[in-house]
From TrEMBL:
The keyword 4Fe-4S applies. Pfam families: Complex1_51K, NADH_4Fe-4S. Keywords: 4Fe-4S, Flavoprotein, FMN, Iron, Iron-sulfur, Metal-binding, NAD, Oxidoreductase, Quinone, Translocase. This is NADH-quinone oxidoreductase subunit F. It comes from Hymenobacter gummosus. NDH-1 shuttles electrons from NADH, via FMN and iron-sulfur (Fe-S) centers, to quinones in the respiratory chain. Belongs to the complex I 51 kDa subunit family. Its EC number is 7.1.1.-.
Length: 447
């Protein structure tokens, strides 16, 4: 396995306490930043590292920081997006529950770089047990002089708060998160203005993911250039992958970006292959909102090259033959999986989680669910398949936030790569709802 930057000490007994975390090099980045670096120098190191947002978008973190407006006398905020709600993604809650001080250390160092004196961790409402762990760790940081007034005698002040949401997927979108944090309904905002100019309480704000902020710690400890040596091309450093589905060894893996997808699935160092000796059918590589790819395209690009676990390689070919790394929610499906049922399940989720603000999303997600329900339950028609594609196109690009795309892309990709399976559901209505029917049917042989 490659080098571990975030999870090296995750299994050390008591690592969730300040004392043990400190003994294993904890809070060195805070000491280095506050005692030997200016805020701009910290930002520059993050730029050098090539770190890209680990929440899904993959936007360069240092560049995002540099966009922050800095009007004189106006407070700035750093908000950590810990509202991990993407189906198939569970890395952030693991990191927070096992290594809470790593996130807190990253928050302090990042807040210093941005000139924020008040920062927030916005956590998913269902994760109250993680909230208690974070609150305990924050209290320890205050007690040991790493939060509060005049941290380490540097003259820098920082207060850190944890705020639970109400369990709404939409609040993973950064502007909806800010609305919720202000005590309002979590509806996404129109942009511009962007949060970097008018964010929390209409003040300049940066919103970053848990893993992104945690990665600032090794970047400052070892230097941005050292971090950039890991990975491939513009996909630098390491990435936490939530591996689930039909795998022999599901779990959370910290990989060095650039590992071949085939190695990640089949190597004993990682997922150990597909369970029960079955064949791989398809993979959703970055959480439920990214396009699904069949086996032949997830292992190899359209040009026949090995597909790598990087932002660029997974997206090679666009959405015709590629997908996205996204949040790293890696869902593997074996040959018995019903793609229609799986797509319907995803669509039910997005219909339920739509905030209803935009008509294409509010109405379109409902139509996707209804049509997929018809197909899965043996009441579909051939024209329903094209209707799915049409509805997806009308949602995509026509909403305030990316939830519309998140609902449309999986459906469009499923039809693109598995249209024959959708057609089978129409021509075999009596068999459509029986688990594994498509896989075991003679009609599927050779397809």
């Amino acid at each position: 396995m490659g080098r571990k930057l975030l999870t090296e000490h995750i299994n050390v007994p008591g690592i969730d306490t300040f004392e043990v975390y400190r003994k294993h090099g904890g809070y060195r980045s805070v000491e280095k930043a506050l005692k030997t670096m200016t805020p701009d120098e910290v930002v520059e190191e993050v730029k050098k590292s090539g770190l890209r947002g680990r929440g899904g978008a993959g936007f360069p973190t240092g560049m995002k920081w540099s966009f922050l407006a800095k009007p004189v006398g106006v407070p700035r905020y750093l908000v950590c997006n810990a509202d991990e709600s993407e189906p198939g993604t569970f890395k952030d809650r693991h990191l927070m529950s096992r290594l809470p001080h790593l996130l807190i250390e990253g928050m302090i160092t990042s807040s210093y770089a941005l000139g924020a004196n008040t920062s927030y961790i916005y956590i998913r409402g269902e994760l109250l047990y993680v909230l208690r762990i974070l609150e305990k760790a924050i209290a320890e940081a205050y007690a040991n002089g790493f939060l509060g007034k005049n941290i380490l005698g540097s003259g820098y002040d920082l207060d850190l708060h944890v705020h639970p949401g109400g369990g709404a997927y939409i609040c993973g979108e950064e502007t909806a998160l800010l609305e919720s944090l202000e005590g309002k309904r979590g509806n996404p905002r129109n942009k511009p203005p962007f949060p970097a100019v008018q964010g929390l309480y209409a003040r300049p704000t940066v919103v970053n993911n848990v893993e992104s902020i945690s990665a600032v710690v090794p970047i400052i400890n070892d230097g941005g250039e050292e971090y950039a040596k890991l990975g491939v091309g513009k996909s630098t450093g390491t990435k936490l992958i939530s591996a689930c589905g039909h795998l022999n060894k599901p779990g959370i893996y910290e990989i060095e970006l650039g590992v071949p997808v085939e190695e990640f699935i089949y190597s004993d160092e990682y997922c150990g292959g597909i369970w029960k000796g079955r064949d791989l059918k398809a993979v959703v590589a970055g959480g439920s909102s990214v396009p699904i790819l069949p086996k032949e395209l997830i292992l190899k690009t359209a040009a026949g090259e090995n597909r790598l676990m990087t932002y660029e390689s997974l997206s090679d070919g666009g959405f015709v033959t590629g997908t996205m790394l996204g949040s790293g929610g890696f869902i593997a499906m074996d040959e018995t999986t019903c793609i229609v049922r799986n797509t319907w399940s995803f669509s039910r989720f997005y219909h339920h989680e739509s905030c209803g603000q935009c008509s294409p999303c509010r109405e379109g997600t409902g139509w996707l669910e209804k049509v997929l329900h018809r197909l899965e339950h043996g009441h579909g028609h051939m024209h329903d398949i094209d209707l799915l594609v049409s509805v997806a196109k009308q949602i995509e690009g026509n909403t305030i936030c990316p939830l519309g795309e998140a609902a449309a892309w999986p459906v469009a990709a499923a039809v693109r790569h598995f249209r024959h399976e959708f057609e089978w559901h129409v021509t075999n209505p009596a068999e459509a709802t029986r688990p594994g029917a498509y896989y075991s049917s003679k009609a599927a042989v050779g397809v």
